[in-house]
């Protein structure tokens, strides 16, 4: 049984369709990223999954329960939203102690999760006096008092400095590796998602247009090479003879764009030089999640 199954999800705000026949499946033990343009419906999707929004049609099960029955998971599913929901006048320790009262079977103590999230020194600070990053750390600490099987994080990297991002990435990796915790991460920070996720789902025009492992998604994306040379015609003739090289275009700045599969940039540069073709610049652009995302969503204003 998957951790999450969404089938045929439709959600309208009045006459405006936000989600239109959205399908998504997340396997247990995966780290699944959810990406989309601003206003594409990422947060709406998460709210429908969690039972915080009614939807027009479709079906959702998370850990085997419908959104209206998620209380039956007894803390096995937790969610942390972009804006931390913590009482501003309680201290970090008081927030955690309060959460412990609501946790049926806590597996970690308040000091344990404070240490885990690096907020021990802020234990006696009121929430209203914390930075956004430390509020987010406290929210995650609160969610980890139990032993959740499925964690939903909405924009988990917002407000964090470089060290904080590294800490969160390490925490996600550790929980996934050591405890098999499943994650759904909704974020605009594509490089971080590419670094940590096993799978990516791209939400576009109300549907999940692509959902697969990172390796499969990027495997279908071209690695390109930009070459700057005053002898474009001669260079093109040389490049056409190299296996695995495909000529793509000559852009407005005079760069010769090629895709490469079986050849590397060193061999291509060497072939040009051996044919006495001067090379002013050689820029390798590897396949990336950001590049794939731009390719899928380019030209769409929605």
Automatic annotation (TrEMBL):
<keyword id="KW-0547">Nucleotide-binding</keyword>
<comment type="similarity">
    <text>Belongs to the ABC transporter superfamily.</text>
</comment>
<dbReference type="GO" id="GO:0005524">
    <property type="term" value="F:ATP binding"/>
</dbReference>
<dbReference type="Pfam" id="PF00005">
    <property type="entry name" value="ABC_tran"/>
</dbReference>
<keyword id="KW-0067">ATP-binding</keyword>
<dbReference type="InterPro" id="IPR003593">
    <property type="entry name" value="AAA+_ATPase"/>
</dbReference>
<keyword id="KW-0813">Transport</keyword>
<protein>
    <recommendedName>
        <fullName>ABC transporter domain-containing protein</fullName>
    </recommendedName>
</protein>
<dbReference type="GO" id="GO:0016887">
    <property type="term" value="F:ATP hydrolysis activity"/>
</dbReference>
<dbReference type="InterPro" id="IPR003439">
    <property type="entry name" value="ABC_transporter-like_ATP-bd"/>
</dbReference>
<dbReference type="InterPro" id="IPR027417">
    <property type="entry name" value="P-loop_NTPase"/>
</dbReference>
<feature type="domain" description="ABC transporter">
    <location>
        <begin position="4"/>
        <end position="230"/>
    </location>
</feature>
């Amino acid at each position: 049984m998957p951790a999450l199954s969404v089938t045929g999800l439709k959600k309208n705000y009045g006459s405006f369709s936000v989600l239109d026949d959205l399908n998504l499946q997340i396997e247990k033990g995966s780290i699944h990223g959810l990406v989309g343009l601003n206003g594409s419906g990422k947060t709406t999707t998460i709210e429908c999954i969690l039972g915080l929004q009614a939807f027009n049609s479709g079906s959702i099960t998370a850990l085997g329960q419908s959104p209206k029955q998620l209380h039956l998971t007894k803390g096995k599913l937790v969610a942390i939203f972009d804006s931390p929901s913590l009482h501003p006048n309680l201290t970090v320790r008081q927030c955690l102690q309060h959460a412990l009262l609501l946790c049926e079977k806590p597996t970690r103590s308040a000091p344990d999760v404070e240490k885990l999230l690096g907020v021990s020194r802020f234990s006696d600070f009121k929430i209203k006096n914390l930075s956004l990053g430390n509020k987010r750390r406290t929210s995650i600490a609160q969610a980890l008092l139990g032993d959740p099987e499925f964690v939903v994080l909405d924009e988990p990297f917002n407000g964090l400095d470089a060290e904080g991002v590294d800490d969160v990435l390490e925490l996600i990796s550790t929980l996934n590796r050591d405890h098999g915790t499943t994650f759904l991460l909704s974020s605009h920070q594509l490089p971080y998602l590419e670094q940590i996720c096993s799978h990516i789902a791209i939400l576009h025009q109300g549907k999940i247009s692509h959902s697969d492992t990172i390796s499969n998604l990027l495997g279908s994306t071209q690695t390109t090479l930009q070459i700057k040379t005053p002898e474009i015609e001669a260079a093109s003739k040389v490049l056409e003879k190299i296996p695995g090289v495909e000529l793509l275009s000559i852009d407005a700045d005079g760069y010769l764009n090629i895709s490469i599969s079986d050849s590397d940039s060193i061999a291509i540069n060497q072939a040009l030089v051996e044919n006495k073709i001067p090379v002013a610049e050689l820029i390798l652009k590897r396949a990336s999640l950001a590049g794939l995302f731009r390719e899928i969503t380019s030209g769409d204003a929605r």
